[in-house]
Amino acid sequence: MFVDGKPKKSLYRKFAIKTVSGPDDFASMDEVITRRYSRLKEQGDPLPDLIMVDGGKGQLSTAIYALRLLGLKNFEIIGLAKRLEEVFLPRDPEPVLIPKTSSALRLLQQVRDEAHRFAITFHRLKRSKRTFTTELIQINGIEKIGD
């Protein structure tokens, strides 16, 4: 979540994937989009001015499908593919190439990079807790209390 071009960390949300086993970007995206936006819809909160999906045409299509299944119609959404920094728009088969020196592209990259940083930090924390807890439990005389 960015507001006025700056991160709004109080609006960040963490999602542990619950319904997908193994690496499946599309199914994971579907789950997260469905959970995030169904909650917004239930609470009557407004949709963001722009939803940005990390990825190309496939990821964008998955997100659009999930939003439409929720009954959401009036939303602005794009996909940003990292390799060539291509911007994908709904109903446009070809990506838009924004000049590398554009401040608009720099803002999109900043949003994507901040999302990556946040997600990676969350993933590492979960993994380190799981590894640390598992190793300690195996030591005779040590027991697990709570989470």
End-to-end separation: 29 Å
**Sheet with the most strands, sense and barrel status:** 4 strands, mixed
Q: What is the total number of structural domains?
A: 1
Strand percentage lies at 5-15%
Shape: globular
CATH architecture: 2-Layer Sandwich
Order of helices and strands: EEHEHEEEH
> Can you say what the CATH homologous superfamily is?
UvrC, RNAse H endonuclease domain
Oligomer description: single chain
- Trace the largest sheet across and list its strands: 3-4-5-6
Helical proportion, percent range: 40-55%
**Poorly predicted tracts of residues:** none
The number of E-state strands comes to 6
**Rg (CA only):** 18 Å
| Average pLDDT number | 87
Q: What structural class results from the helix and strand content?
A: alpha+beta
| Total number of helices | 3
Query: What is the CATH third-level topology name?
Result: Nucleotidyltransferase, domain 5
